[in-house]
Protein 1
Amino acid sequence: MDPSLPFIELHRHLDGNVRLQTILDLGRQHGIKLPGNTIEALRPHVQVEGVMPDLVSWLNKLHWMIAVLGDYEACQRIARENVEDAHAEGIDYIELRFSPYFMAGPNQLDPARVVEAVVAGIAEGRAQTGLKVKLIGILSRTFGPEACRIELEALLTQRAHLTALDLAGDEKNWPAELFVEHFKRGRDAGWAITVHAGEAGGAPSVWAALQKLGATRIGHGIRAIDDPVLLDYLAQHRIGLEVNITSNVQTNTVPGFAEHPIRQFLDRGLLATINTDDPVISNIDLRHEYEVAAPAAGLTPAAIKQAQRNALEIAFLSPEEKSALLAGKARQG
């Protein structure tokens, strides 16, 4: 990691990054019976140990993080704590993403009010830490197109406070083609587009995200490695890849760290970056991904620096904001 460059996180789910202590606190507050009454007893029900059979099994670890969201104050709290934790990690800029329909579900909250609460929590975190944060709204494809329409309407109530729209969830069973109109409305709202693709699905899923939904960045994108034409397209069109090395191993998207394609992506000039995905579930932070996971995936110090440089290039920031981040690092140096 190069200290002269900004330390940037582009792919982190705030609803998949809830402190274990917060889960305990909110469970007690809302009378929700948890599978453990201490952090250590709760940990195996929330954090991954080893490799899961597939993505859906891994996503089941999210259950207790949203089960305890008993009111809008809880949603605001976890958003604020995500900013606090990113600041404590030494991150200079972060893009946090969330699915209001997913967060609202267990306790039948109003998705629009969830969005409002998350926006308020992010604002609190910014004010307390001074950290630069942007917010990405997710449509959870697993619930189907009609639920995603409701989710989109909720996100649009706070359109000025969001930077981009994402599609996440069960990629295999809910293809991008079902969400074309949703993403047209997102683009019309002025949002950038990033889409989870090439994680549980193959290279055609990445093509669909680009051609059907208008994505300029891809979340994960691992299976792009199977299609040389796609790799050339991603490089030529400067499409960013939000890569999550440890998460990809844990979800069985790749067989192991040594087999991860991020090194090949960088060698071919793709704008691959290093991110955490859901750090509490994976029991990691961004520094771990740079210092442990990236070398395990075969990245040299020069490749890691390139990934760090790529993060600044593909961040959903204006040229002026990028220059300000660089200037801030120069002043620190």
Protein 2
Amino acid sequence: MIRIESGMSTARWCEKFDIPERTWRRWQARGRAGGQAKGPWPQPARCSARDLMLKHAAAHLAWGHRKIWALTRHDGHMVSEATVLRILRDEGLFLPESYQRERRQLACVEEGGVR
């Protein structure tokens, strides 16, 4: 759509965005046929141990993905740390990196002192 409005040829458009023209044609054909450009792919590692990871995460809310990963591995499921992290993020159980910093700042304010 944007390519047509700007009056660019397909070859020039692909060159500008460093996309092989064959890839662009494949994406266009898939889009016209009503399919998705990419994915969804099967996720066997996530599906196999998801319930166990969520059980551990619910039992220990303050624990991070590495401890949940260790518990899952101890229970016999071979998953990576990144898989556990992704599942916790998908479920909204992963605390942001600044979580500890924010807690310390709130505690400092409640005590009346500023560090």
Protein 3
Amino acid sequence: MLKLFAPCLNSFSIRSGDFAETAVLLPKFLSDQGIQQVIAPLPTKTGELWTNLDRFKAVLYPFVTGQDGYEVKMQPHHWAAFGIALKHIHSTALPPTLAQALPQETFTDRWREFVKTILAQLGEMQFDDPVAGETAVLLKTNQAVILDLVDRAERLAQAAQAQPLEFVVCHADIHAGNILITLDDTFYIVDWDTLLLAPKERDLMYIGAGLLGNWYSPQEEAALFYPAYGQTAIDQNLLAYYRYERIVQDIAAFCEQLLFTQEGGADRAQSLRYLRSSFLPNHTIAIAYQSDKTQSGCWSSF
């Protein structure tokens, strides 16, 4: 996605390839429901939300300047806005045509199988690129942990598939990079390309998972978020599944980036640091393990 900024204080999003209309239609719908933390696209003169430019789709948005949640600390009032907005999103009833257009959670094993395949092939792979070589060593060193994560995610996915679940509208990728705090202190949730109908835990797993910056402890994040979101029963098995699955997907993405290409320049070393940090004490893997209450019951409430 390429964004071109115009002097009229609006911004164009230029998209090629597969174009998910719901990534434009749903933010507009949510904004129309009064969710101020969603930036709505602007209609064309004919009332459409995008237009064709040769092989591209062009979408016009208000120009918003700010920093993401990795760059600036979310203050208590931002967490309150976050909780209120996410509760509103999860509670929104969609028109049938929009609901039918959204993908639904299937608990796919796509990334788990991909990671298992990579680990099985690592012994036969050779790398000239230093970052790729370091990545391979890191994966081999932590192979037992990674396979355990995959196995736990698989077990919890099978349990989820066997029970009736309530699906709601989920952003599905609310990490700190998709939180925007503007220069005038306004809070937004951005980047709606991952929309999904899924259990609410698909979004709630980010609260306290180590994915919203390193400003607060997991307990502090929950204490800031849930009073605004409201008391709700959390399926701890689903929460653990989504945290495991997110780590597995990240490992898969880093493998694709670092083992199979040499693209990215200096960003490659940074990506390796991100991957390595996952295995540190009190980081994402440790937090995911701590949230797995499989042996002691699956329900609690905040």
